[in-house]
Amino acid sequence: MKLDHIAIVRLSALGDIVNATIVLQFIKQKYPDIKIDWITEEVFAPLLYEHPFIHKVHTINLKKIKKEKSFSLLKKTVSKLKNLPKYDLIIDMQGLLKSALVARFIGKKIHGYDKNSVREKLSSLFYASTSNIPYELSVIKRNVLLMNDALDLYPKGTSHVSDEMITNKLPTLPSYKKLPFTQDEYCVFVIGASWESKIYPKEKVLDICNTLTCKTYLVWGNEKEKSDAEFIAANSNNAEITPKLSLQELCALISHAKLVIGNDTGPTHMAWAYNIPSITLFGPTNERMIYPTVQNIAIHSDSAVDIFHINKNDLSIKNISPQNIIDKAKELLQ
User: N or C terminus of the chain with fewer C-beta within 10 Å?
Assistant: First the structure.
């Protein structure tokens, strides 16, 4: 297969894009001269603009199209996609109908997950070739196996991309040195998430911050999370709320931390991307969303999770003991 220029489609969300970037270093190891373009939602593009392995980031704004119901913006977006380069291969890493349609507007040589490997089975109808990769596998492993199949990184029946290679990866995101403030050593607590049931109670976060001696910055993303962060900071000598951070400032903050604790959400996953110790808290979801290592661990509630039918009303994350988190944090900080 001749591969000079390829495209990756991964539109959203933040955590999923973070977890997808691992494939870039494996592609470059096999094809050092290849040009890799990435198509994503406009809001997430700053995460990728300075990536050393990405040739160009192309953006679309499907959320705006949906919100405004704008036919003219839809037409412009389709025209933009059709005018992108003629790629040797397009890989849809998302496996949703919207990402498959975006890929199809770009070209016909598309690789993606087969109908038994995705939530939206119709997406597989748009692909020229597919991979059968169990949906219940770690999302990191799924990303790597999909890319392995698409680009023949390692011939079938031989070595494939191994668990050891994933564990010993290079940082998967660009290095940003400019911090929004000066602090030599600190921890980070990511207090928010996309669903209320993913969020660990602020009162228990306060207990953890007051017990750990590490200076802890509280990361927030909306006004409700900011209010919770202000409550924690006002009642703790160790915790401090961050200002509103850009994606690149958030990357810099995470990449220089001693430890990141947080809910199952994008900023927490950044710690794994930067090889920073982390504790991810799970209630309605589970370890499938991360790649556990000796320094990137999961603590979950006693809830039985069915990844094919996620219960967004499962509030069991509230039952996780702060002391359990404190004990694991102390181990990682040592």
Answer: C
The DSSP code for 308 is T
Q: Choose the final residue of a domain: 111, 138, 167.
A: 167
- Whole-model pTM above 0.90? yes
Query: Cα–Cα distance between 171 and 164 in angstroms, integer?
Result: 15
Which residues have CB under 8 Å from 35's CB, separation 6+? Answer: 4, 5, 6, 55, 56
Residues 132 and 208 both lie in one domain: no
Q: What is the pLDDT along the chain (334 residues), one digit of tens a residue?
A: 689 999 999 999 999 999 999 999 999 999 999 999 999 999 999 999 999 999 999 999 998 898 888 899 999 999 999 999 999 999 999 999 999 999 999 999 999 999 999 989 999 999 999 999 999 999 999 999 999 999 988 765 555 677 888 999 999 999 887 776 666 799 999 999 999 999 999 999 999 999 998 999 999 999 999 999 999 999 999 999 999 999 999 999 999 999 999 999 999 999 999 999 999 999 999 999 999 999 999 999 999 999 889 999 999 999 999 999 999 999 999 8
Instruction: List strand residue ranges (DSSP E) for 127-182, in order.
Output: 129-131
Residue 73 belongs to a domain with what CATH number? 3.40.50.2000
User: Are residues 75 and 213 both part of a single domain?
Assistant: no
